Amino acid sequence: MSQEESPALERRVADWLQSAGYPLEMTVARRMKEVFPRVQQSEFYPHAEGGLSREIDVVATAQRNLDGRILRVAFPVECKVSKDKPWLVFTDSSISLAASARITQRAASWLGKKFLRAVAERAPHVGEAGLFRAPRRPGYSVTRAFESSSDKSYQALMAVTNAAAGLARGLEGSVVTAVYFPLVVIDGPLFEVHLGESNQIIVERVEGASLIWRNPGLGTPHTIVHIATLAGLEDLAASARETADILLKQSAILAAAVGRPSGRQPHDPEIES
Q1: Domain assignment present for 268
Q2: 270 found inside a domain
Q3: If you ran DSSP here, which 8-state letter would residue 61 be given?
Q4: Which pTM does this prediction carry?
């Protein structure tokens, strides 16, 4: 290959990487590494259909050993480039979910579910902090504008939901108490769509949204997914870390919920936050 050809090929490779979304995944991982002790890219999880492994773009994790009990809070992230087709989140201020439901309706291991129920009962104020907070206008559906074929926004939501459920399912029988919060980050515009007082369509550009989805993919009545643009990534990462810190401080509730440590070892090595 001549020296003249090499730069041209490098540009072609760089353009292809950009179109395939790899720089977005790397950017999201780098930002998450600034606030989380462990961030994995291209993480695999067991899928419910046929037991085959599937891949999720990024997983950020904070974990603590609390008197022999392993508590893990993790955030699987699906990354999508959609610069020419904005994402639209349909919202409605009349949608409401009680604080206890915003706590318990999350992907979690079997011990994680017990822990969340105990948190909702003994520390209901947690439902007003971090990613547990009720959005001003919750989203109930997402689509991409100008989409003519399959809706890639739906595919992204299903991918991150399946990842959260699969990661939790992979801890079946483990002593790890784990909770997972599915996130989506898009490189492109995000708009909130809702009806005004005169039934007119209002379209507002936003950098983040929370979807309370009537999809039982997590084994709960709702699947809650948090969405952000690249411009909103910093706020999303900060809220995720705040959420992890809140849960990691609930050592007394964890002890009451899951009982004494069994002495069995968790699947993963201990990760200090």
Answers
A1: no
A2: no
A3: E
A4: 0.90
Q: What is the DSSP letter of 263?
A: S
More confident residue, 95 or 21: 95
What type of residue sits at position 156?
Answer: A
Distance between CA atoms of 159 and 184, rounded to whole angstroms?
Answer: 10
Paired strand residues for 74: 61, 180
- pLDDT single digits (tens) 119-172: 999 999 999 999 999 999 999 999 999 987 768 999 999 999 999 999 999 888
Q: Report whether 227 contacts 87 (CB < 8 A).
A: yes
In Å, what is the CA distance from 235 to each residue of 69, 109, 130, 149, 239?
30, 27, 10, 32, 6
Phi/psi for 185 (5° steps) reads -120, 130
3-state secondary structure (DSSP) of residue 6: helix
Q: Determine the Cα–Cα distance for residues 117 and 121; give it in Å rounded to an integer.
A: 6
Query: What domain range includes position 166?
Result: 5-258
Say which residues have a Cβ less than 8 Å from residue 139's Cβ, sequence separation at least 6: 89, 90, 91, 192, 209, 210, 211, 212, 213, 227
In a domain, 77, yes or no: yes
DSSP H/E element including 64: strand 53-66
Nearest to 72 by CA among 163, 225, 180: 180
Beta bridge partners of 187: 81
- 266 belongs to a structural domain: no
Number of domains the chain contains: 1
